[in-house]
Amino acid sequence: MSASSSLQPWQRRKYSPFRRQMDVFGATARFLTRLWWDNFLGRNTPECRRQQGRKLVNQLLRLGPTFIKIGQALSTRSDLIPLEYTEALGELQDRVPEFDPNEAIAVIESELGGSIHTLFREFDRFPLAAASLGQVHRATLHTGELVVVKVQRPGLEELFNLDFEVIHRLVRILNRYIPAVRKYELEALYNEFFGLLYQEIDYIHEGKNADRFRENFAEQPHILVPKVYWRYTARRVLTLEYLPGIKIDDRQTIEACDINPDQLIQAGITCYLQQLLKDGFFQSDPHPGNMAVSQDGHLIFYDFGTMAEVKSMAQDQMLNTFFAVMKKDTEGVVSSLVYMGLLEPKPDMTPVKRLVSFVLDQFREKPIDLKAFEQMGSELYIMFEQQPFRLPAQMMFIIKSVTTLDGIARALNPQYNLLAASTPFLKELTQSARKGSLVKQLAQQTKSYIRYRLTRPSDAERAIAQLETRIEQGELQFRVRTETSDRILKRVYLAIKCLIYACMTGFSLLCGTLLLLGSYPNWAIVLFGLASFCFFLLLRSLSRLAVRERLDKLVEK
């Protein structure tokens, strides 16, 4: 088999816009058909959703870089899609094969305006790593400095431009013919995604992000950020200082090098709190591939293509949020998040407050239970299922970043304490801040927090207060009423399905009999087959209805 025949369609040079549109539309139609069929057969179970999630991942990999990135972006959107899909998409990796080194060299020479031997003393033709957007080669400058050269995949921008049009057409079709998808605001998601994607393939933009990030941590020697070599950087080529390190979640190697994992956890959380609370400029995708540890225990950050920003004017409010989290002040946290634009205000914020209160309850002076995080994810999806609205992208970036950092910390120390690891940030903030409103505010918040710790109510008092709050909000009454009405509605729904299947069975039998008498045996067989299938569905629905009625009677006793 030739090498070209093993390539995916998007990797081939001759790939027409019409063929691309057919591939994308066909994959979308197959996925929606499977969802409809599962729903039609009542197979809306978690296991079925996991299977569909795995199939979706394989389809995205076949469609190439744009759709791999879409999958990675959707893996953070538990406000939009079921948990089983976010879990499957969260495992999506850049499994795209590396491209020809000659093509990489051609891109470098074209972008930097010189031959590879003129630009570099040595250039390793075998890439260190390959991803959907490009690959990385090690090289040596003529001055003797070791660097890595990040080269964009040839034809990538042309493919994105093509997909930009195809996906926009698909979004318009879905919005027009499938009303159920309109609540997800696909047009806004589409614009948000491609805006970030075009930034990520602009390596000049990534280089500027790296310089800004490096400057923010210039006074902290335990945080290392590779230097950008602008003489050897262009839109499709990025040359960075070579900073090798140990993978951040490789606990065995880290301990073998006599590096304290707890100090790494504290440094990582303190670093990220600075990004959020002081700088307002944070790495939105801190996965293990983007972080490493040097031999002397310093943290190394890579990949600055996906950075997110919070308005600088909101940093004081973010400090308030930090203390509100420590005091488990639900109202304060929600108010701060709305102020920062990280939550969209709604007439009824009760579901949001319920979720925030649940999350804050997990921040105790002990390791956070993994089952509690799973429950938090379930609560998040249920909340958006009951009251669907879309969170701003920055909020989802923060949620993804925090959960990713939590996973990295657990790999280093399963018993780590998130709250204890974050408190040294206050000391660092105090030491770095000058006299002024920030220090004054910090002192006030610290005083308030100490007062809270000394006067906080007992567990029994907190439980009574929570119960009073739930009664005032009508939450208990709402839940009881919903359970009763849900049971009745499910029985009505099953009864209607039984009636429909009975009518279809009888109609098919009648038509088949008439065709058989009219000397049309072939068509009669088709209708008898349809009648048998409808009869099977009728029996299954009747059995489900009988089981449902028995269960409801047991519950009502």
From TrEMBL:
A GO MF annotation of the entry reads:
kinase activity
Keyword Transferase part of the UniProt annotation: yes
Which positions, given as ranges, span the membrane? Answer: 494-517, 523-543
By its UniProt entry, which Pfam families does this protein fall under? ABC1 (PF03109)
CDD domains hit by this protein: ABC1_ADCK3-like
Q: Which UniProt keywords apply?
A: Kinase, Membrane, Transferase, Transmembrane, Transmembrane helix
**Span of domain ABC1 atypical kinase-like:** 92-335
Q: Which PANTHER family match?
A: CHAPERONE-ACTIVITY OF BC1 COMPLEX CABC1 -RELATED (PTHR10566), PROTEIN ACTIVITY OF BC1 COMPLEX KINASE 7, CHLOROPLASTIC (PTHR10566:SF113)
The family classification in the record reads: Belongs to the protein kinase superfamily. ADCK protein kinase family.
Q: What is this protein called?
A: AarF/ABC1/UbiB kinase family protein
